[in-house]
Design brief:
By secondary structure, this protein is an alpha+beta fold. The chain is built from one helix and three strands; from the N terminus they run βββα.
Length: 94
């Protein structure tokens, strides 16, 4: 069921009321018995969770292989530093 926002013209209280779409709007403030006005708001946006919502989710394996071949394999540059281990004579022989 959708949530509707109302604001009282007399006391200024704002309410969020969960109502069925077929129900009539509330016109009386439950706090001061004044006039309620139904507000229009954008509401909550859609939240997509899981796979299947992006164009790349539907790509076939064949398409992915062709795309890789066209772009070429990514080149990864690595810098290797060789560590030199120096043996130091121990002042205390074992």
């Amino acid at each position: 069921m959708p949530t509707y926002e109302y604001k009282c013209n007399d006391c200024g209280v704002e309410l969020d009321i969960v109502q069925n779409i077929t129900e009539n709007p509330i016109t009386v403030c439950p706090k001061c018995q004044g006039d309620l006005k139904k507000l229009f708001s954008p509401g909550a946006g859609f939240i997509f969770k899981g796979s299947g919502f992006y164009i790349t989710d539907y790509r076939s394996e064949e398409y992915k292989k062709r795309e890789k071949a066209e772009k070429g394999e990514p080149k990864v540059k690595t810098k290797e530093k060789k560590k030199e281990v120096k043996e130091v004579a121990s002042p205390h022989p074992k």
